[in-house]
Amino acid sequence: MNAFPFLLILRLSHKDREFLESIYIEYANEMRRIAGRFCLRTEDVDDLISDVLVRLSQHLDTLQSLSPEAKRYYIAKTIRNTAINRGKHTKWLAEHETGSDPSIMEQVQAKESVEESVLFHAEVALIQELMKNLTPKELHALRMKKMTGAEDWEIARALDLSESSVAQYVRRAQKKLWALYKEVKNNESSMD
Which residues of 150-184 are buried (b: 16+ CB within 10 A; e: fewer)? Predict the structure, then answer.
């Protein structure tokens, strides 16, 4: 079970763990098929399913009360919603990356309506502005990891960090940006 998160197993009671494992075993192929629709890369499918299992673990009582057909629908909706939330969470990376490459921007603009293009550029500008709130090490670790695909040891050497702290800097930067992004969006929606 590649996608079954190890830490989740430790957190659950034996009964809950068995139930969630049975869900995973029974629906694994269907979960992979649905998750594959939301992932650009096949290696991201396991990550998405792992996130879904964490979300499902928070609603085991609901899952246990559902009929098999309702359970299948609930799982599919959880996969969809988790994929959307993950997409929103990491959208700023893709937008920032795209914003730095004019050829990609041209491809995106060719496929979008004018309204979508304007919204896209506004989102990129917002993310770039929010990135100013990161510490220099967070900013460089995040850029090197997500935009250039550098390995942790390369980032550690470049930023004079321990290799084990690189992931922490990247995660902290992502959480900080996501929190700031949500705050801005919540403020915008409250003004409407």
Answer: bebeebbeebebeeebbeebbebbbebbbebbeee
Q: Please say whether the dihedral angle defined by the alpha carbons of residues 94, 52, 166 and 185, taken in this order, is positive or negative.
A: positive
Domains of the chain from N-terminus onward:
6-91 (1.10.1740.10), 96-191 (1.10.10.10)
Give the residue ranges of DSSP H helices in 39-101: 43-57, 60-65, 68-99
CA dist., res. 160 & res. 133, Å (int) = 21
pLDDT 10s digits, 160-179: 888 889 889 999 999 998 89
Using N-to-C axis directions, what is the helix angle for 114-130 and 163-191, rounded to 10°?
130
Q: How far apart are CA 112 and CA 154, in angstroms?
A: 37
Distance separating alpha carbons of residues 71 and 185, to the nearest angstrom: 32
Read off the pLDDT of residues 12-40 as tens digits, 9 standing for 90 and up: 788 988 898 899 899 999 999 988 887 77
Residue 140, token pair as written in the block: 């460089």
